[in-house]
Description:
The structure holds 2 protein chains of 2 kinds.
Chain A lengths: L15 H5 L2 H28 L4 H28 L3 H34 L13 H8 L1 H33 L4 H12 L6 H12 L11 H8 L14 H26 L3 H9 L4 H12 L1 H16 L3 H6 L9 H10 L4 H29 L5
Chain B lengths: L1 H43 L3 H6 L4 H4 L9 H6 L17 H32 L5 H11 L8 H11 L5 H24 L5 H8 L4 H12 L1 H17 L2 H7 L8 H11 L4 H32 L5
Helix pairs in contact in B: 1-14, 5-8, 5-11, 5-13, 6-8, 8-11, 8-12, 11-14, 13-14
Amino acid sequence: MRPTREISRSPEPSGIGAFLSTTLGRLLVSIFVPAITFLVLYQVFIFLRDTQIPQWITAIIAILWGVGGVLALFTLSNYLIEQLGPTWRRRLIPFVFVGPALAILTWYLVLPTIRSFIASLYDARGINFVGLDNYIYAFTSQEMLQSYRNNFLFWMIFGTGMSVGFGLLIAVLVDRTHPVFETVCKALIFMPMVISGVGASVIWKFIYEYRPTGSTQIGLLNGIITALGFESQGWLLMQPWNNLFLVIIMVWLQTGYSMVILSAAIKGIPSDLLEAGRIDGANEFQIFRSIILPSIQGTLITVTTTIILFTLKIFDIVQSMTGGNFGTQVIANVQFVQLFRQVNNGRAAAIAIILLLAVLPVMYYNLRQFNKQTEAFR
Amino acid sequence: MTSTTLAAPRQRRRFRIGHIMVYVVMILITVLWITPTIGLLVSSFRPADDVKTSGWWTVVTNPENARFTLNNYRIVLGIPLPDRPVTSGTRVGMEVALINTLTVALPATIIPILIAAFAAYGFAWIDFPGRRPLFILVVAMLVVPLQISLVPILRDYVALGLGGTYLGVWLAHTGFGLPLAVYLLYNYISTIPRDIFESAFLDGATHFTIFTRLILPLSMPALASFAIFQFLWTWNDLLVALVFLGAEPRVQVVTQRLLSLLGQFGQEWHLLTSGAFISMIVPLIVFFSLQRFFVRGLMAGSVKG
Lengths: 378, 305
């Protein structure tokens, strides 16, 4: 990073230096420097968008351009503010720091809540005002009703319940084992967390693969079932239980998360509290119910909320496993279909607003917590 | 007295049996949890004919008949084989998708962190009117689902010519990752002791100098935690790529590629498994080498939209 003016002020400016420190010089610099920076960045953008050079070269230029561009813009805006008088400098410098973040946040999240609401009152192409038609669609159409059932019953209740339940069970059990054993178990159970929903779908589609009874099974689940003497099953076609088989994929991905967080909370319980319980003759189950559970209640709520928010927006597993067919439709997938295949912006926006309404309680809770914690932050 | 001496060994024995049970249950759960991944890994190294005609577990139950090959990976990565030249019909193209994913994920990680670190410093250490309401806005945005922005932002992208460009995807990932990034980095940067700033201010340093010279290096642990989180999120993302990057194979990322392989080569499990494993390698390396940072980031970042 180049030193700023305050630090590197040379005592005797001369030649070009003298010119640059005049007001006119500063003005010219303030106009030309950003103009040239923007021009260079824009030209590279156009070049990258239309270029035909080898792909890995494009990739490297794109990465350097993106990261360097952001750095250049920050350095530049700071440099320009430094040219101003002390009063304006003090007024504007906070916005060099928080401005870009707030601008992007406003463009990508704050304004879209309003713009989506407006779009939800218009037709597919956003031309004619249709009132609440899109909401009538969102609350009465067969695909949306099916989505509510799947999202709330299967994904939210079963999915969250199983992820948190398994996570808690494993966290409690693993706490009683040798530290090395614990580390290995945790790492292996946690590992699916870093696998994409699509990658996990390939893994599990292979497990659910169906071949008729009698032929060699290559899907693990039907392999086990037929070895036990049962008929092989088309797991992904069994309505409505196929939803549960999709939910299992998410449970496989998310249990590690709840396990790690809950395990940390359990380790945070003071050991003399547990000792006291044992001396008083409580058995392990009583200790779990009367000491461990109340102590980790807060963490349990946090983990549950996080996973509920995740299930609400579940998309990639459904999109890659069934595409929402065979009775497995979910809200986010309907929105995607409306946006791309039906090209119905009004409906897609109305569905987005419904998702937003669903997270409002959590937003309210977050804000209240924030207010409580930060009385000092004024 | 007698009763306690009698009870003690019995209780210890029961405890020991319970203890063994804990290990047995944990081993069962762990095996259950890694079996799907092992099935994928084993299948990805088996010849196409074997994958189609026998379960992958026969490698364990019937090891003398097991055959392994790297050909699946060669096909998926676009390396021509004698009996299978790379044509438009057989092209899998994971190698292109891998580079595309890197091109998306690296800037989509670094850019939001840079912007968020600046903002976190501004909120934590510069006093300005509107500081609190603006930060509350950031907290409010933490749980807003990104679905809310698809319709309006797509409209903007069409108008601005940003659709299908890397810049568009970087900005989208930046927008969706920023609330959490600002929030986490604020929590960290605001706890840096005030003394560190004061001597720097007395020496006449500006906020910009203090930030770039002092705060950024001091915040490295927090930056690293969030970086891993965001990198994995952008690497594994499907929705943002589908919406803002589009379907053109030249720009597709690995998750998109894998999704279209599921349609195109739905029964060619030797290609699907090796393709899926290739998409997982980078996240797995990041996970196993930087697990501690990753877990720390997760802990700090619970309840995100």
